[in-house]
Design a protein that fits this description.
Order of helices and strands: HHHHEHEHEEHEHHEHEHHE
Mean pLDDT: 83
CATH architecture: 3-Layer(aba) Sandwich
Number of helices: 12
Number of domains: 1
CATH topology: Rossmann fold
Distance between the termini: 49 Å
Largest sheet: 8 strands, mixed
């Protein structure tokens, strides 16, 4: 089991894992953020024949039926922020860590031709896959941007809604992500994110596991810490709504050796949460 060494190590590991996930999809497999993607149903955090519990059941098949198959196969999220965000026609949406583009394409539909959807990702392979999916879907009101979510390449107050799907937990500087989100949102704008959240504490050996970090667990924030960080960034009405509770040993077992995943060290509860906050209408 590899241990976390530095923020740059984490970023490189995430780049490699998600680049491999995109390559797996392009080769006809389901994305895998921790395995080799060799199976057509490779899990998010393993190379097995069953999907990770984190990614199961996030989307209604009616929503995804008209999307390119590769957009669905590349989905590594823990929820459906496009449904939870209550997007409205004409809004501008930004997806942080847009991957293969599923949430950007769904958002573009919801905001309609008078709205617009941006996707931001740092992985070249994912950006290429997302653009391919955009072309295949025929969606015009979409642009995919290359960059890091800690330094969003958009002007101040240019976005109505920020969404993200199981990505902020991967960041090595979550405070910077939240500050940037606040900066690019317009006054009254909404932060509407699906993310892995911890209730309680995970053991240090789990937090220091590179495999668990790439698997969206080791870097996840504790629930009250998430809310506190949003408040410090300037947001109001911050809250976490639990949308799914995972069996801790099962979720960790996708990324860690069985003896660690099933040990008493895995005492914190791992959940998927819908994280909401708003940028005050007046920030003066």
């Amino acid at each position: 089991m590899a241990s976390v060494q530095s923020p740059s190590d984490i970023r490189e590991a995430v780049l490699e894992k998600y680049g491999q996930a995109a390559r797996s999809v392009l080769q006809g497999s389901q994305a895998s953020c921790c395995g080799d993607g060799s199976s057509a149903a490779a899990s998010c955090c393993g190379g097995g024949s069953t999907a990770s519990p984190i990614i199961i059941g996030n989307y209604n098949p009616e929503e995804t039926r008209s999307l390119p198959a590769e957009a669905v196969l590349a989905s590594l999220g823990c929820g459906n922020p496009t449904a939870l965000a209550e997007l409205r026609p004409g809004e501008v949406v930004l997806d942080l860590g847009s991957g293969g583009g599923i949430d950007v394409l769904l958002s573009a539909r919801r905001v309609g031709p008078t709205g617009f959807a941006y996707g931001l990702d740092m992985t070249d392979e994912m950006l290429a896959l997302a653009e391919r999916n955009r072309v295949a879907s025929g969606v015009e009101n979409v642009t995919f941007l290359r960059g890091q979510i800690e330094a969003i390449p958009l002007p101040d107050a240019s976005v109505d809604v920020i969404i993200s799907n199981c990505v902020i937990n991967l960041s090595v500087d979550k405070d910077a992500v939240l500050r940037e989100a606040f900066r690019v949102l317009r006054p009254g704008g909404r932060f509407a994110v699906s993310d892995i959240v911890i209730q309680g504490e995970l053991a240090p050996e789990i937090k220091s596991s590179m495999e668990a970090w790439a698997g969206c667990i080791a870097g996840a924030l504790e629930e009250q810490d998430y809310i506190a960080r949003l408040n410090r960034a300037g947001f109001a009405d911050a809250s976490v709504e639990v949308t799914k509770v995972y069996d801790t040993a099962e979720a960790l077992g996708e990324c860690l050796p069985a003896e660690l995943a099933g040990s008493s060290a895995a005492s914190g509860r791992i959940v998927s949460g819908f994280v909401r906050a708003t940028k005050p209408a007046s920030t003066s």
